[in-house]
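Section 3.1: Structural characterization of target chains.
Under the original work plan, the team committed to producing a structural model for every single-chain target entering the pipeline before any wet-lab resources were allocated. The record below documents one such target. The sequence was received from the expression subgroup and is listed exactly as submitted; it comprises 533 residues.
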Amino acid sequence: MEDGSHSGGSDSDLIDSDGSYSDRSHRDRSYRDGGRSSFSGSSSDDDSFDRRSARRRYDYSHRPNSYLEDDRISDLPDLILIQILSLLPLTDAIATARLSKRWRFLWKMVPNLAFSPYDHHSNTRPSALVSFIHKVLLLRERSSINKFSVQLDYRREFRSAVDVWLHVATGKNVEEIYLDLERDRGAPYTLPKNLYTNSSLVKLTLRDCNMNPNAVFSWPSLRILSISYDGELNDNSIASILSGCPVLESLELRKCVDVSRLNTMSASLKKLTIRSCDMTQISAPKVESLSILGFTETTMSLDLPSLLHATLNFELRIVKKGSKDSYQKSGRLMTYLLETLNGVEELKIGTWCIQVLSVLEMQNLTCPTTSFKRLILNTSFTRWDLPGMANLLRNSVSLETLVLNMTRASGGRGEILLRKKDGFKKLNQFYNELDGKKYWNSQEGALVNSLQGLKIVKIIDDNLYNTYDWYSECLLGLLQVILKNVRMLEKVVICTNKIENHGSLRLNSMEVAQTLLSFPKASPSAVILYYKS
């Protein structure tokens, strides 16, 4: 195989001086012929590098003393330098070949290959990226690959190239493959037959790729599998995949529209993530962690007796928004989920789900009594969130840790359930007149009974976008009730990464902490901690 030095330039010619992918092609190589023959043969430069011990130090005896003192990094063993290069974007690692002969071949030994058009390059044309990937694989054909990652705007003419890349990677016993082949139009990429049977894969992530639903799957070492936008996948093929993955621990399905049921007796599967799938039934007796995210159009049946952690951060797609039937359907779904997930230790719940509970609250419908020990609320703390939060807190009788993850409502989604046109005039009037501090004071009696076991309150607020009036009333009103009445409380922790001021009405996190210190405390040992990173 020709090396960069034999083709009129160095290996670093793979990238231009501005860091972009070079579009200069090898005249003697082409992936369009199937490409496998391009990855055979030997190189004298590569052979000499392979014969050199990985721990051998380069001989700098001919260099001046000042150079030895200034270039201590180059005197490190190869294994350490390769580890350093593996922490860099691949193009930066390749660029080190220009430094000296000492560095010329080191990048070829980096075991993790990640290719993306977003790695700070000016030349992001898909064809340039395809050419770049092919050249890299040619120049380092004798080196092993642990991780192979590609993000590419896929076109049909790239199919043979992607086939070759996967053939090369699997031939080197790759352990992790990440394939994101997003496309604007045209047919998606279909995985080649040789990938369905692989003994080395440990982690496989597929975005916008199709599998053959009739294939026989054999991934005996696979532990983590994530599949997105697969239009061919169905209930039977999911069952076939799971039967071919005896040690699978984590499964994520995202926008797999034809998958509606997941039934598995797998003893190894512990984590399940469902994102924007219309799943109607999930039965997995050994799963310990479940996340339902994105959008769904259906209600679902769950059989998860070993579940310990659950995340509900989704929205129910409603054809006719604003109808009372849609609210009833949403309410029934949330009631069922809370009843079914009652035994989990930790529940994380998002804004839409909280606001469904607000609708129930305003219709005098309480949510089920739960035994969660840890509750994480992803909330924008709008008026539409408060009744749902109160509804849930009143019925969390075993709660020990409460986390308020403050999020910014965007695109109007902070008011996703109740709007003026919905016909709920009384509810809308209530929300418009709602006073945050007074509201929590009105809930004090019920909250005192349910939160007596509460020990830790944590507030995570990286973006303080709300105004002083509403933000302070809501947050301080709730925390004042907790500090005043919870006798087992140990600490209130406020974490923030940045503070943004939006005029004189801002209340930043430090001011919140100082205000909390002035509140009376039922627990004499409770402390208030403030962290800013």
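The two ends are 51 Å apart (CA to CA).
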